[in-house]
Amino acid sequence: MARVFVTGGTGWIGQALVRALHRRGDEVVVLSRGAERGRVALGDLPGVVIVEGDPTGAGPWQAALARATAVVHLAGE
Asked: For the purposes of burial, counting CB atoms within 10 Å of the CB of 26, is it exposed (0-12), middle (13-18) or buried (19 or more)?
Protein backbone atom coordinates (compact mmCIF):
# COMPACT_ATOMS: atom_id res chain seq x y z
CA MET A 1 0.00 0.00 0.00
CA ALA A 2 1.29 3.43 -0.95
CA ARG A 3 0.47 6.85 0.46
CA VAL A 4 -0.20 8.93 -2.66
CA PHE A 5 -0.41 12.73 -2.58
CA VAL A 6 -2.52 14.08 -5.45
CA THR A 7 -2.91 17.66 -6.64
CA GLY A 8 -5.81 18.23 -9.00
CA GLY A 9 -7.67 15.30 -7.47
CA THR A 10 -11.06 16.98 -7.84
CA GLY A 11 -10.78 17.41 -11.61
CA TRP A 12 -12.13 14.98 -14.17
CA ILE A 13 -8.96 12.88 -14.48
CA GLY A 14 -8.04 13.38 -10.83
CA GLN A 15 -11.34 11.98 -9.55
CA ALA A 16 -10.93 8.84 -11.67
CA LEU A 17 -7.34 8.43 -10.45
CA VAL A 18 -8.25 8.93 -6.78
CA ARG A 19 -11.01 6.33 -7.03
CA ALA A 20 -8.69 3.86 -8.80
CA LEU A 21 -6.00 4.31 -6.13
CA HIS A 22 -8.64 3.88 -3.43
CA ARG A 23 -9.89 0.63 -5.01
CA ARG A 24 -6.30 -0.58 -5.20
CA GLY A 25 -5.99 -0.08 -1.45
CA ASP A 26 -3.73 2.95 -1.41
CA GLU A 27 -4.05 5.75 1.11
CA VAL A 28 -4.74 8.93 -0.84
CA VAL A 29 -4.22 12.55 0.20
CA VAL A 30 -5.82 15.13 -2.09
CA LEU A 31 -4.68 18.75 -2.03
CA SER A 32 -7.59 21.06 -2.80
CA ARG A 33 -7.93 24.83 -2.69
CA GLY A 34 -11.40 24.23 -1.26
CA ALA A 35 -11.78 21.27 1.09
CA GLU A 36 -15.57 21.37 0.86
CA ARG A 37 -15.42 21.26 -2.93
CA GLY A 38 -13.13 18.26 -2.63
CA ARG A 39 -15.52 16.43 -0.33
CA VAL A 40 -18.41 17.08 -2.72
CA ALA A 41 -16.42 15.93 -5.76
CA LEU A 42 -15.01 12.78 -4.16
CA GLY A 43 -17.69 11.83 -1.66
CA ASP A 44 -16.83 9.85 1.44
CA LEU A 45 -14.09 7.40 0.49
CA PRO A 46 -12.43 5.75 3.52
CA GLY A 47 -8.68 6.26 3.36
CA VAL A 48 -8.96 9.39 1.23
CA VAL A 49 -7.97 12.56 3.08
CA ILE A 50 -8.55 16.03 1.70
CA VAL A 51 -6.19 18.78 2.81
CA GLU A 52 -6.83 22.41 1.97
CA GLY A 53 -4.09 24.55 0.58
CA ASP A 54 -2.61 26.35 -2.40
CA PRO A 55 0.20 24.44 -4.12
CA THR A 56 1.80 27.71 -5.22
CA GLY A 57 2.57 28.74 -1.64
CA ALA A 58 3.93 27.25 1.55
CA GLY A 59 1.43 25.94 4.07
CA PRO A 60 0.41 23.17 6.45
CA TRP A 61 -0.36 20.91 3.45
CA GLN A 62 3.39 20.38 3.07
CA ALA A 63 3.42 18.08 6.13
CA ALA A 64 1.08 15.68 4.29
CA LEU A 65 3.32 15.89 1.23
CA ALA A 66 6.38 14.99 3.30
CA ARG A 67 4.72 11.72 4.43
CA ALA A 68 3.80 10.63 0.89
CA THR A 69 5.50 7.75 -0.89
CA ALA A 70 4.31 8.97 -4.29
CA VAL A 71 3.09 12.26 -5.80
CA VAL A 72 0.79 12.83 -8.76
CA HIS A 73 0.60 16.46 -9.88
CA LEU A 74 -2.50 17.16 -11.97
CA ALA A 75 -3.28 20.72 -10.86
CA GLY A 76 -3.81 22.80 -13.92
CA GLU A 77 -5.48 25.94 -12.69
From this structure: middle
Residue 67 near residue 45 (C-beta atoms within 8 A):
no
List helix spans (H) across 1-77: 12-24, 35-42, 61-66
pTM attached to this predicted model: 0.91
pLDDT digits (tens, 9 = 90+) for 62-76: 999 999 999 999 987
Distance (Å, whole) CA 3 – CA 38: 18
Contact 70, 4 (CB under 8 A): yes
